[in-house]
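Researcher: Following up on the earlier apo prediction. This time include the ligand. It's zinc ion, with the SMILES given after the sequence.
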Amino acid sequence: MSTLFAWPDGVLTRRKVTECALARLCGACGRPLGRPIAFLGDAGEVARNEFHSPPLHTECLDRARTAAEAEAEVVLTAGYDFVRPTADDTDPEPRFRPLAPVGTS
Ligand SMILES: [Zn+2]
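Model: Understood. Below is the ligand-bound prediction.
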């Protein structure tokens, strides 16, 4: 199995996350995203509707789950905003805010 695009050394890499966000690439395979777009997150991320892991193809979810073990919940959406942290932000990491989630599983 090849490594995951946004987890090149098994660790989520901010540069790759940004690349996925701006170029609309899948965090697992690095190919352009279609729809729906899937996000993996923990319960807190789902509750805030803000995700640190990059967008994924639905068919790449299983591979990405392996990399992000604790991030078990899935939200499907047609689009997202990319949120860059500001200087006084309590969360220093960039994150994704799905637009009009179309479902969870
Ligand atoms: Zn993919």
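Model: DSSP finds three helices and five strands in the chain.
Researcher: Noted. I'll compare it with the apo version next.
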